[in-house]
Amino acid sequence: MTQSTVTPFVATAGEALIDLIVESDGRLRPCHGGAVYNLTLALGRQGASPLYLNPLSADRFGRSMARALEQAGALTANPQGVVSPTSLAIAELDAQGKASYSFYRDGVADRQVSADEMNRQCTAATSIKAVASGCLALVAEDQGKYLPWLKAQRAAGRLVVVDANLRPAIVDDMAAYCSSVMAALGEAHLIKVSDDDLQILGFDGKPVDAAWQLLKQTRAPWIALTLGAQGAMLLDRTGRAWMATETGPVTVVDTVGAGDCFLAGMVVALLQLTHDDLPHATLSNEEVTAVLQRAVASASLCVQQVGCEPPSAADIAARLQKHAPAVRAVQTGIH
User: Fold this and answer.
1) Helices 35-45 + 258-271 axis angle, to 10
2) What's the total number of domains in the chain?
3) Is a pLDDT exceeding 90 seen at residue 260?
4) What are the tens digits of pLDDT across the range 220-256?
5) Residue 50 domain-assigned?
6) Which residues fall within 8 angstroms of residue 274, CB to CB, at 6 or more apart?
7) CA nearest 222: which of 190, 268, 182?
8) Interacting residues of 117 by C-beta distance below 8 A, sequence separation 6+
9) Residue 191 lies in domain
C-alpha cells in the first residue's frame, strides 16, 4: 500500500486501461480509462479515499495512471508497477457522443490479481466500508478472481457495489459472459445497470420493468438504473422507486465515464449516511433524494468534459446549489 496518511473507505477492483479515442481526422487520442479506474478516480476526487487493488503497469501509460490516482487522493495497493503492459481500448464516439469499444487485454497488468491477495489487502485496510467492481472484471475468464473476493467482502459486512456495464465486444461466448455477470450481481447490495445492459442480459420490456425482473433474481436491496439523457432511477426491494432528472443545462461533449461518475456520486452519498448497517438499511425519501442528486450531478459534470474528467466534491456541491436534480417517487406497477 502507498505510504499515506489517507484512510481508505472504498476498495475498488477491476480494469485500468488507456482509451485510444478516434478523432474526426482518424488520429488516436490517448486518455486514462477503464470503468473501475474511472470510478476510483471519481471516488478520490469526491473525497472517498479509494484503495485500488489492481496492479498498474510500469510502462509510460501505467506510470501516468498511477500519478493521476495519487493526485486524486486515491491509494494503490500495488504501488510498484509490473512488467506487463497497460490494457488498451479503441473508443469511437457516435453523433450523440456515445462510445463503442474494442479491447486489447491479453497479458496485461491490471489482470494480474487473485482473490486471496485482494482479500488480504481489504482485511489489512480495516477502515473500508464498501467495495466496488464491475465491467471488464465480470468476464467469465476472470470470475475465479473477482467472485470469491465479492463473496468474502459481502460476508465481512461491507457494502458490495457491482456495475454491470457490459462490453459484448470483448467476449466470444455471450452465454458464459452473462452467467458470470449475473453471478457477480448476485453478491451485490447495490447494482448499477443501464437500459443497454438489461437488454444484453436478456431482460425484456421497458427498462424499469426489466430492472424489476433483475432485482427479483438477486439479493440486492437496490438497483440504480441509468437512462441516459432521460435521467436515472433507484429501485429498492420493498417495491419503491424514484426518478431523478436534471433541472439545469447540460452540454454533452462525450459520455465517456458518465456512468462511472454517476456511481461514484451514489457511493459517496451512501457512505455519508449515518446507518449502522448500511447494506441492510431502509432509506428515507430524503436520503434517496440526496443520493440520486449527487449521482446525477456528478454524471452531468462529467459529460461536459472531453474524456473522463471526474468532478471534485466542490464542483458537485456548486452544481447542486445552483441546479439540484429533481427527484420524485414513482409508481411503476411492478414490485
Assistant:
1) 50
2) 1
3) yes
4) 999 999 998 899 999 999 999 999 999 998 888 877 7
5) yes
6) none
7) 190
8) 53
9) 10-329
In a domain, residue 2? The reply is: no
Do 27 and 33 touch, CB atoms closer than 8 A?
no
pLDDT digits (tens, 9 = 90+) for 139-197: 999 999 999 999 999 999 999 999 999 999 889 999 999 999 999 999 999 999 999 99
Q: Is residue 335 part of a domain?
A: no
For Cα atoms 240, 271, 291, give the angle at the middle one, nearest 5 degrees.
40
C-alpha cell at 295: 449521482
What's the DSSP call for residue 82? Answer: B
pLDDT digits (tens, 9 = 90+) for 67-89: 999 999 999 999 889 999 999 98
Compute the distance between CA of residue 139 and CA of residue 146 in angstroms, rounded to an integer: 10
Q: Where are the alpha helices (DSSP H) in the chain?
A: 35-45, 60-71, 115-124, 143-155, 174-185, 195-200, 207-216, 258-271, 285-302, 313-322
For the chain, what is the mean pLDDT?
Answer: 93
What is the per-residue burial (b if ≥16 Cβ within 10 Å, else e) of 172-200?
Answer: eeeeebbebbbbbbbbbbbbbbbbbbbeb
CATH number at residue 23: 3.40.1190.20
Q: What distance in Å separates the CA atoms of residue 214 and residue 224, rounded to the nearest whole number?
A: 11
Which cell numbers hold the place of 288? 434517496
Using the CB atoms, write b or e for 284-300: b if 16+ within 10 Å.
eeebbbbbbbbbbbbbb
Q: Would you give the DSSP letter of residue 192?
A: E
Q: What is the pTM of this model?
A: 0.94
Q: Quick check: is 3 in a domain?
A: no
pLDDT confidence of residue 149? 98
Mean pLDDT of 290-317: 92
The separation between CA 218 and the C-alpha centre of its own chain, rounded to angstroms, equals 18
Question: What's the rounded Cα separation, in Å, for the pair 205 and 211?
Answer: 9
Q: Compute the CA torsion angle 94, 97, 100, 106 (nearest 10 deg).
A: 130
